[in-house]
Structure formats: structure tokens, C-alpha cells
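Input sequence (104 aa), recorded before submission:
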Amino acid sequence: MMSMGGYIYMLRCADGSYYVGSATGNDLGPRVNQHNAGSYKGYTFSRRPVVLVWSEYFDRITDGIAVERRLKGWSRAKKEALLCSDWAKVRELSRRRGGLSKQS
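Predicted structure, C-alpha cell format:
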């Protein structure tokens, strides 16, 4: 059985918060449009309009869903570091959350 691919994506909502979601297939545009149209009564419904700020395609959606679950647990600062591709900051924030102090 062939596994279907899909996107993991992050939206910035009108209130400045972030929403992380997933979508199967090769085109993320319709999913973002559905969020903006209020097709889903979930998190983004009362926080429209939303803007796509990050996405990554995965050949196997199951791999993407594992990443989605991790991203949903990230702090706002860590998500913003990802948006800036600031991998050093992502690593630093990962250590901080784990309770380890950064040593000079």
C-alpha cells in the first residue's frame, strides 16, 4: 500500500497566535482558504483571517503528523525561531525547556 504525502503547516492568526495543522495532498492553498472561510469550527474559526507562515511537505503523511505533534508542543518563541530558520535559537530553547542551563 502506498502512503499518501502531505503538508504540515503553521498559520498566524489575526490575534497573533499560531496554529499548526496538517493536510494531505500536493496543494496547501485550498486548506488555507478553508480556514479563512470558516469551514472549520475549531481554533482558527474565531481568529480569522489567518496567514500561512510556514509549511513543509512530507512524502509520508505519518512522518508529517509526528512533526505536527512536536510543533504543537513548542513554545511561541521556539515556533518564531523556526519561522526565522534560527536553528541555534531552536536548539537553545529546546535545552531551556528541558531544564538545563546553558553553560559558557
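Checked by second reader. The radius of gyration is 15 Å.
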